[in-house]
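A reminder before we start the practical. When you read a complex entry, don't treat the lines as separate problems. The point of joint prediction is that each chain is placed relative to the others, so the output describes one connected object in space. Small molecules and nucleic acid strands, if listed, are placed in the same frame. In the example below there are two entries. Take a minute to note the order of the lines before looking further.
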Amino acid sequence: MSIEFTPTEMMTIAAARALTNDDVCFVGIGAPSAACNVARLTHAPDITLIYESGTIGTKPDVLPLSIGDGELCDTALCTVSVPEMFRYWLQGGRITTGFLGGAQIDRFANLNTTVVGDYDKPNVRLPGGGGAPEIASNCGQIYITMALNKRGFVDHLDFITSMGHGEGGNHRARLGMKTKGPTRVITDLCIFEPDAVTRELTVVSIHPGVIRATIEENCGWPVLFAETVTETPAPTTVEISVLRDINARTKKAHEAA
Amino acid sequence: MARICTLSEAIEENVRDGDSIAMEGFTHLIPYAAGHEIIRQDRKELFLIRMTPDLIYDQLIGVGAARGMKFSWGGNPGVGSLHRFRDAVENQWPRPLEIEEHSHAAMANAYEAGAANLPFAMLRGYIGADLAKVNPNIKSITCPFTGEVLAAVPSIRPDVSIIHAQRADRKGNVLIEGISGVQKEAVLAAKRSIVTVEEIVDELNPPSPNAVVLPTWAVSSVVHVPGGAFPSYAHGYYPRSNAFYIAWDRIARDRDSFTAWIKEHVRGGKPEDFARHVGKRSAKAA
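Here is the predicted structure of the whole assembly.
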């Protein structure tokens, strides 16, 4: 039996599947938060979700609008101060996986959420880095999820808010970083992973119904495909109903207050 | 000893033109009522400090009260842009805004260093990040023991810090519950401080010996302002108004609608207006 799903639903579910029960995951707001909670409500019930507001082991019933909604604190194992969160837990090396989104990404999975244009005279002033610069360097590995389009996937970033693989190759190691950096980028059309040597993002899996030309048309650089490209399994009925239920609960809750 | 007084007196006594000011609260317990009182008292040339400027600083920037801002994430959480902040940076309206931009980790460390009476904070941060190229206050320091190069930023020492909390007792001891952010550090790092609270009670009765408590002698002024954190929230009292955060996008997108909103709700308002938000208890808090 095949079920209908949107590209965004496929993206969230593919992102959720990247997570395991053993992960201690530092969760970014928006798409990463949806993916992390779908994972928790399906195949990874014991995953530890951490939000930068200080909430550790949180199990929200509705997705938070902000990184510090009361729901996160109400359902957490404990809540620590923000300095403790960044010093002991993130910098302390206790987080296995950071889950980030971004406004723009380049082929080495560097992210820009700061400015489009010149920093001092920006065309568009974006919110900035928040926790991302140190999440990107201090978590064991990084997953990124964002929709694939030419506005987001660009040939050149005006500003590197958080470093992925920098200029590629062993750039992270050259800067003394011992963490893996971005290991997977999950979009609404396909999944990228960095090449083992060059670290350039390479398509390893294509979502059902998507053709290579569509991926190429929506990416700002010439896309590399891995030697073996698989088809992403379609969402299961359980995955899709969990996602739709939490989205419906969330919409109702956010419109209420 | 903290002085228990009105909001108007507390701002009058503690916030001066030209001050550096930190109004903290990480999504939770944001001292909105105090922000409105600063606008009503027409404070000028403020240097704003806050990890997430949020709507409270969008309002102060939009009325032209700020000469500069130190921050680490300037968006409307989950909604989009802070339009007044963007207008100031992109178009210098209503005046240019000098910005000093950091990461959350650096700001949190800098508050902690300020509270610890240290001149700077160090962290394993900004590796490969462009902020270090555009912010001259991000420097590096070499560990004298291992040789590791770490990021260094100046500690945050505000002239005045303002926070909101759940409760104080009649002596002015303050209890903070829930997501406590960097509020304790912000108060202890500042020369002067104001805490607005939901309730003033006879006995503080902290729920645990490890509760987050600011003793009265560490605070300048305590003010009873029920609802004073709306549209953010007060854990145990009222939920975050996510609907207002969504509505702010439309109010603040346009200069005229923003100015009209400030005129009606801030300049024409008073601290007691916030109390009407207290009734909206969340299911979890009730």
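Discuss with your neighbour: Residues 237-256 of chain A form the longest helix (20 residues). What might explain this?
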